[in-house]
Write a structure and sequence with these properties.
By secondary structure, this protein is of the alpha+beta class. It is 38% helix and 25% strand. The strands form four sheets. The chain has a five-stranded antiparallel beta sheet, with helices on both faces. A five-stranded antiparallel beta sheet has the order 7-6-10-9-8, with helices on both faces. The protein is rod-shaped, with a radius of gyration of 41 Å. It binds adenosine-5'-triphosphate and magnesium ion (MG).
């Protein structure tokens, strides 16, 4: 390589050496080098010497370029000699005994000291630190994105600017439906205005807010959330946004509710057993006496009235029977049965009734379920109770009842879903209470679900109800899968 090949012909070329003192380049925050066509460094500013190597002047710049960037370096150096300029290209330098420097290179051809040939002045902007922060941010962003907790970021004005996929899953809204919205899009309306004002007051002052709230997902279901809102504060101390971290505690809440319910049921159960016993015995005496008198009298008036008395006694007897059913009947025999068979029997008993005329029954059965240990008649009774409730809930002249069976590792399930009027949120806690009914006098005693609950609990299972007003109700009955050989006692 000779200097002549690079002879300067362009008059406008920067003639740095002849016009300015290169020491002025020490004022530059960038690393500055001047190189010969053979890459020998003839000048380096102070920061370049400090960051790269104290022996950099006289050395070869290319030898500092990391291996993977050598071809890039060769290319841009050649282009610069030919065209005069090449800018904004990222390469890496390896200073001896130090960390790699990531730099953005700007190369300009200039007249060499002799005025005859060309050199290149190179400004290198050190972006190592910036890249590191970017990586950290990226890692941080990934952590948030893939976190299992639903996370949401709002701007200072409280509009959603980010949600992670866990958030989309938890609330059933897509990212696009959420960005730009107020977080109250998932509000349940269960908390007062005052409540939210307090939350806002605390977070806008820069303090973290922690608490339990109730949200509502897109389907309208309530979701219990443990929420932490932390203000995002910029280096100047200004609140620029808020990070909301959610934990779905719906399941935990349901379990607590179940526990409370089962304790309540136990108390009522004891009471019921007592009543059934105390009322049942005298009732049997009354009933037999009535029959004796009916048979022995010729008085038609008395006979008629006694018939009425008998009907009333039957009504009481039915309730007593249900109370007995609830309070753990020991005289019924548990058998191994097929859940699907029980479901079909219950369906066949209910589907031809008057109420079922306009209702379409759908059966979605999973075959080959493991057998369950139950009192068959009682289990059928439970299904009948729930199907009749579903029929009662369908008020229009068309509706669908879907009965589904399935299993997982621990349980078999029967899910009975209707498209009826649904149950109001405030009522759902009460429907398992004895004598709670919304039906007209004579049409419901309010014992159906209570009795069903008692029966299923006796089998070691559970009943849960999900309902959306005006859309329908889903009742899920779970029964444990037991080992047959260890359980046949
Ligand atoms: N599928 C359902 N859809 C809407 N509401 C329901 C449904 N199932 C139960 N309910 C509500 O729960 C209440 C209690 O049900 P439950 O079966 O215990 O008693 P009932 O049906 O009123 O009377 P009974 O079953 O003793 O004849 C009902 O009155 C009704 O308000
Ligand atoms: Mg009922």
């Amino acid at each position: 390589m000779t200097r002549n090949t690079n002879k300067v012909t362009d008059d406008s070329e920067v003639s740095l050496y002849t016009t300015v003192n290169p020491d002025i380049l020490d004022a530059s925050p960038d690393l500055v080098f001047i190189i010969e066509p053979d890459d020998t460094i003839t000048y380096a500013n102070k920061i370049a010497v400090r960051k790269l190597d104290s022996k950099v002047v006289g050395a070869n710049l290319r030898s500092y370029i990391t291996g993977e960037f050598e071809p890039v370096y060769d290319k841009v150096r050649n282009i610069t000699f030919k065209n005069g300029y090449y800018g904004d290209v990222e390469m890496q330098l390896q200073p001896p005994g130090k960390n790699i420097i990531i730099g953005v290179f700007y190369l300009t051809r200039i007249a060499a000291r002799d005025g005859e040939s060309s050199s290149i002045i190179i400004f290198i902007r050190d972006i190592t630190e910036q890249r590191r922060t970017e990586m950290q941010l990226l890692r941080f962003a990934n952590a948030i994105h893939y976190a299992v907790n639903p996370l949401q970021i709002t701007d200072a004005g409280g509009k959603i600017i980010y949600v992670n996929p866990a958030y989309e899953r938890a609330f059933g809204f897509s990212k696009d439906e959420l960005i730009g919205q107020d977080p109250n899009i998932v509000s349940s309306g269960k908390h007062s205005k005052r409540f939210w004002q307090n939350v806002w007051q605390s977070i806008s002052q820069g303090t973290i807010w922690k608490g339990e709230i109730v949200n509502r997902n897109k389907k309208g279901e309530l979701i219990y959330i443990e929420l932490i809102i932390s203000p995002i504060i910029d280096p100047s101390g200004r609140v620029v946004g808020y990070l909301g971290s959610h934990r779905d505690i719906t399941e935990k809440r349901h379990l607590e509710e179940q526990l409370i319910r089962s304790q309540k049921m136990e108390n009522i159960g004891t009471l019921a057993a007592g009543i059934a016993h105390e009322v049942g015995n005298p009732l049997t005496s009354i009933s037999s006496l009535v029959q004796v008198i009916q048979r022995t009298t010729d008085d038609t008036f008395a006979k008629d009235k006694l018939e009425l008395v008998k009907n009333q006694i039957n009504r009481i007897a039915k309730i007593i029977r249900e109370l007995v059913d609830f309070s753990r009947p020991s005289h019924y025999e548990e058998k191994w049965v097929d859940l699907n068979k029980m479901i079909k029997e219950a369906m066949n008993i209910t589907r031809y009734g008057r109420k079922a005329r306009h209702v379409n029954f759908k059966l979605e059965i999973q075959e080959n379920l493991p057998p369950i240990l139950v009192v068959p008649d009682q289990l059928i009774q439970v299904f009948i109770n729930i199907i009749i409730n579903a029929l009662d809930a369908i008020e229009s002249d068309s509706g669908v009842i879907t009965i589904e069976s399935r299993r997982d590792a621990k349980n078999v399930y029967c899910v009975i879903k209707d498209t009826g009027k649904g149950i109001h949120e405030d009522e759902i806690d009460k429907i398992f209470d004895p004598f709670y009914t919304t039906k007209k006098v004579g049409q419901g005693t309010g014992l159906g679900l209570w009795v069903s609950y008692g029966i299923i609990k006796n089998f070691g299972g559970n009943i849960s109800v999900d309902s959306v007003l005006k859309r329908g109700t889903t009742v899920t009955i779970s029964l444990p899968i037991k080992q047959r050989d260890t359980e046949t006692s």
